[in-house]
Structures are given as structure tokens and as C-alpha cells.
């Protein structure tokens, strides 16, 4: 799934230690975000976000998200 970080999908009982807080975020956002029923191409620049720490603070909880309409900017380098 191009919308998810690399290796980010786990069954609820297999979520790695320290990642349990994502279960609550998923439960919250699954109520309003669209179901992804088909694979779409990764957004331009998505590969540059692989492994970048601290992305959770950038999460947009708005209900206006529509896959394919978002732009992915390159993360800032230090």
C-alpha cells in the first residue's frame, strides 16, 4: 500500500513493542478516512520518506484526505 510507510502494516496482535499507540490512531482515523480498495502508485518523493524519524507530528487528521491528490515533499536533510 503506497499510502503506508514501508513495513507499517501489522495485525493488531503483532504490533511491535512501543508501537501500540498506533492502534488508537488507526481506530480514530478508520472511521473517517476512505478505505483503500486498490493499489495505487506511490506518490512522487515517497521513497525519500522511508526511515525518516518523527513523521507522526506531520499527520493530518482532516477528513479532506484523498489519495492521489496529495503531494509528498522531500524531507529536510540536516
Using brief descriptors, characterize the structure shown:
Alpha-Beta Plaits, single chain, 1 helix, little secondary structure, 13% helix, 78 residues, 0% strand
Topology:
Elements lengths: L20 H10 L48
Describe the structure.
The protein is low in regular secondary structure and 78 residues long. It has one domain (1-78): Alpha-Beta Plaits, CATH 3.30.70.20. It contains 1 helix and no strands. It has one helix spanning 21-30. The longest helix is centred in the N-terminal third of the chain and has 10 residues, at 21-30. The radius of gyration is 13 Å and the shape is globular. The protein starts with 20 loop residues before the first helix and ends in a 48-residue tail after the last helix. Residues 67-72 have low confidence and may be disordered.
